Amino acid sequence: MESGSAQEPQTPRGGENHLRVLIDYVSDALSVVDLTTGRYLDVNRHKCESLGYTREEMLAIRVEDIDPDLGRSENLRRFMTEIRPGRPVTFKTRHLRKDGSSFPVEVRCDLIEMDGRTCLLGVARDITERERTEELLELNEARAKALLQLNEMHDASLHELAHYAMEEAVKLTRSELGYLAFGDESGENLVMYAWSESAMAECAVQDKPITYPLAETGLWGEAVRQRQPVITNDYPAPNPHKKGIPQGHVHLIRHMNVPVFDGDRIAIVAGVGNKETDYDQSDVMQLQLLMDGLWRLLQKRESEARYRLIVENQTDMIVKCDRQGRITFASPSYCRTFGQTSESLHETEFFRSAAPKNREIVADALRTALKRPYRATTQHRVHTSRSVRWHEWAYSGVADEKGVVDEIIISGRDVTDVKKAHAEHEKLIRKLETQNAELERFTYTVSHDLKTPLITIRGYLGLLEEDIATQDFEAAEGDIQRIVRATDTMKQLLDELLELSRIGRLMNPTVTASLNDIIGEALENAAGRIAQVGCKVEVASDLPLVHGDRQRIVEVFQNLIDNAAKYATTDTAPRIEIGIEHRNVDTLLFVRDNGIGIDPNYHENVFGLFNQLDPKSEGTGVGLAIVKRIVEVHGGRIWVESEGRGKGTTFYLTLPVTAPIP
User: Fold this and answer.
1) Which segments of 221-367 are extended strands (E)?
2) In CA terms, which of 109, 156, 379, 545 is 20 to 30 Å from 576?
3) Nearest Cα to 218, choosing from 202, 240, 234?
């Protein structure tokens, strides 16, 4: 463009007046430039106002006066090469105001013909706010990326996190240096933790202090005392809050810092300095949000570390599942129980930890935890790394504000020992109830049966007194014999009752013995009775070993053999069979005879105290009660089977047995 004198603007004619009004009130800056001279031929009002010139002044200057970049020959040459009629060019540049300040604009230029010459029509738009918005968006995005990176630094130390946050703070605020300090537990001291690399390179202070008493801090401590961000854009200027800086300290031109509080306690003080332009609220926002995010992250890590410590040392098992019941977290105690690692358990289905028959119970509990009130409990068997155990689990669904459960927290414990103790307790209760019932029957029976010999004795004592008075010594001698028999009967009753009471209290050492040997001893003890009735006894040769009190078990079989021989029938040759049967999983021992048999109505009564099927038979009726007590003390059972009178009798019993010695 060549220099030339300013031309007088043309005055709008007739119908063009309304066009002038429209152009003047357009919000963009419009101008027409002579391509030959580079001078403005026409401008609208907004063009003048945005640059601070009058219209007359604008028509006296050239384009390069307000756009030095475009005025440079290289830029101008590129511009003239690109522009063509009907092909406008849009570009960004900065315009100079009359006062020397500048502002960003977006300019759209096109070639037009006016008054027979080619001119340049320019439309300029102030994009200051747009650039601020774009810059803010870029800063926000950068801050978000910095916070995301902080959250992903799982294994980073506090020192690494603080230094990374400090360097990002310097970038976000376009500063040259920065620092970060933590408040101590007392809230009275600030502990310097991180300086930006540029600050460390520039600082020449020897023996840099680490801890600063808050009361002694100068301007940089005001953010804490005022509990708000503090901006100082003219740091060298006098300030009553300053307390001096040490020799070799970084030279500060501008300074800004922000506090982060945890309740009333100061948590973080972060500051930046020496930005090329003044700090403003945008800088405050970026630094404050970044430091708030850092503190939340540190609190979260501390909280997670605390809870992790609790969970990892918790004896109870803790599992977290998604809504499909897949494991997303398993505590160390759970991993140890099942002999797995957290990695191998990840995304496995929780219900599969249960025994197969109990899995539907667990699956139903997981479904229940997805619905209000988001609670469920189960108690079921599981296959652990060692054995099958009983576990008790509590399920808690974690619902959002819409009531949708995204995860389920499950806590459990091993209750095998508790269930065993409960079962033992129930067994003991039943045993006590049985014993109490037996005691009541025992008391009644003893009081009744002991009265019989006492009544006999008392009756014959009266007769004895009369016989002596009449000197009937022969009758007196008979009275005395009857009294002696009654006392013998009472002694036998009392001895057998004493024997019955001792069973379970006084036991011999437990041994493992051959049942064939035990039955052989019992047969020797009952040999007199067997010989008396001429009974044939058959004993199986493959009887198992038995565990228990050998003497008591001998007593069991001796009583059963003696009882079988005593009630032998005279119709057939007496026979006793001793052997073993297998029913399902039970091993049954039996003593079978072909004697008089027992009516099924009396099967339960035969083991009661003093119960005798034949009152005329010898004995007290305590023998089978003793047998039953011994068997039960050994954890076994005994019962009788008989089809009735004349059909013989079989006594079945179970004892702790094992395979015979090979």
Assistant:
1) 230-232, 255-262, 265-273, 317-322, 327-330
2) 545
3) 240
Say yes or no to pLDDT of 441 above 80.
no
Give the pLDDT score at 342.
Answer: 84
- 290's tokens: 């970044």
Q: Is 339 left (phi over 0), alpha (psi -120 to 50) or beta?
A: left
Query: Which token pair is 8?
Result: 């007088």
Structure tokens at 163: 């230094």
Structure tokens at 643: 């089809």
Provide the phi-psi class of 4: left if phi over 0, else alpha when psi is between -120 and 50, else beta. Answer: beta
What is the structure's pLDDT at 621? 59
Tokens representing 588 are 């049954």
Q: What stretch of H or E contains 183? A: strand 177-183
- Kindly give, in sequence order, each residue whose CB lies less than 8 Å from that of residue 146, ignoring residues fewer than 6 positions away: 164, 165, 168, 172, 290
Between CA 527 and CA 539, with CA 533 as vertex, the angle to 5 degrees is: 55
Would you call the peptide bond into 332 cis, given omega within 30 degrees of 0 as the criterion? no
CA–CA distances in Å: residue 485 to residues 69, 260, 379, 460, 489? 144, 105, 63, 11, 6
Structural tokens at position 158 = 């506090």
Asked whether the beta carbons of 547 and 511 are under 8 A apart, the reply is yes
What Cα–Cα distance (Å) separates residue 134 from each residue in 50, 125, 128?
Answer: 22, 16, 10
C-alpha to C-alpha distance for 61 and 55, rounded to whole angstroms: 10
CA 124/CA 144 separation, integer angstroms: 34
Residue linked to tokens 């907004």: 46
Region for 471 from its dihedrals, namely left if φ exceeds 0, alpha if ψ lies in -120 to 50, beta otherwise: left
**Threshold 0.85, pTM exceeds:** no
Please work out, in degrees rounded to the nearest 5, the angle formed at the alpha carbon of residue 187 by the alpha carbons of 184 and 192: 45
Q: Given pLDDT bands bounded at 50, 70 and 90, which one contains residue 659?
A: low
Tokens of 147: 């916070």
Q: What is the CA radius of gyration of the chain?
A: 55
CB 639 within 8 A of CB 576: no
Of the ranges 140-149, 333-342, 479-488, which is most confident?
A: 333-342
How many CB atoms lie under 10 A from the CB of residue 8? 7
